[in-house]
Amino acid sequence: MSTIRSREDLLALRKQLQREQRTLRKRRFLSQPALLIGVGLLILLLALALLGPLLTSYSPNEMKIVERLKPPGANHLLGTDEFGRDLFTRMIYGAQVSMSVGLAVAVISSTFGLIIGLYASYYRTLDHILMRICDGLVAIPAILLAIALMSALGASAVNVITALSIVFTPNIARVVRSRALVIREQTYIEAIRSQGAGATRIIWRHIAPNILSLLLVQATFVFAEAIISEAALSFLGVGIPAPAASWGNILQAGKLVIYKAWWMVVFPGTAIIVSVLALNLLGDGLRDFGDPHIKAKRPRRKGKLFGKTV
């Protein structure tokens, strides 16, 4: 009976501990305003990108010359462009392009950066080779390297993803390597190695899981930078080819009629700013949420102590 009771007490204690941990994580999540704002804005942008086509009856490439450069109104919520195309519709489809390109670049560059950084931190020979290649790529300004790659590959959405993935992978690889070098020297890694564990097991089962939180934060920043870079490439004419809708393409067309149609510059520019701000806030919030040294803010209790409100 005592054994059964002790086992039941242990299970009850474990469940209570799990509930307390969930409560603590929830409190830490709610105590991060940057994380909450970033998540809210990102959900709003994704909802508009996915569900936005249901809110409009226009086609993104449908031209009506008689309605060119119409200001925002009842028929066209955000006005029309130089070919009479509905700007709200093109903004929605441009959000799909920007979000898909940014997400693809973040996933691809994070995956290859994780692999390169882990193996470079564990093998000295690979470290000298891979890190010198990364140093050479990082030394070139990102936008110039992206333009050079797009000039060689050609303008298309797939080539934009490929070029930006090449641009951002070295930065992630360097961050992963620096973190993995610290973990590699920990005592428990040496103990696992002394027990006969292979390099693959140590890298992927004991080092990689401790880097995933850092990698997630870096991926959100790469997501934001990829959106800006894609818009810049499209603005310069080497990104998403026309007539496909893209925030950069809309800005490029709007600069020619900026004095007649201010909405063609203001609305896509605002969309880029809001999306990048949301992702940066999300990254900062995730970094603070995963930092054990930052304590969750406790709600202040109102009361009186020696005649003062506390």
Secondary structure elements and their pairing?
Elements: H1 2-30, H2 33-51, H3 87-122, H4 124-139, H5 142-153, H6 157-184, H7 187-194, H8 199-207, H9 212-236, H10 247-254, H11 263-289, E1 304-305, E2 308-309
Q: Sketch the major β-sheet.
A: 2 strands, antiparallel
Rg from Cα? 25 Å
Number of beta-strand segments: 2
First CA to last CA: what distance?
A: 50 Å
Architecture, according to CATH?
Answer: Orthogonal Bundle
Q: What is the level 1 CATH name?
A: Mainly Alpha
- Based on secondary structure, the structural category is mainly alpha
The chain-level mean pLDDT equals 85
Shape summary: flat
User: How much helix, percentage-wise, in residues?
Assistant: over 70%
User: By CATH's scheme, which homologous superfamily applies?
Assistant: MetI-like
Strand and helix order: HHHHHHHHHHHEE
Q: How many domains make up the 3D coordinates? A: 1
Q: Which percent band covers the strand fraction?
A: under 5%
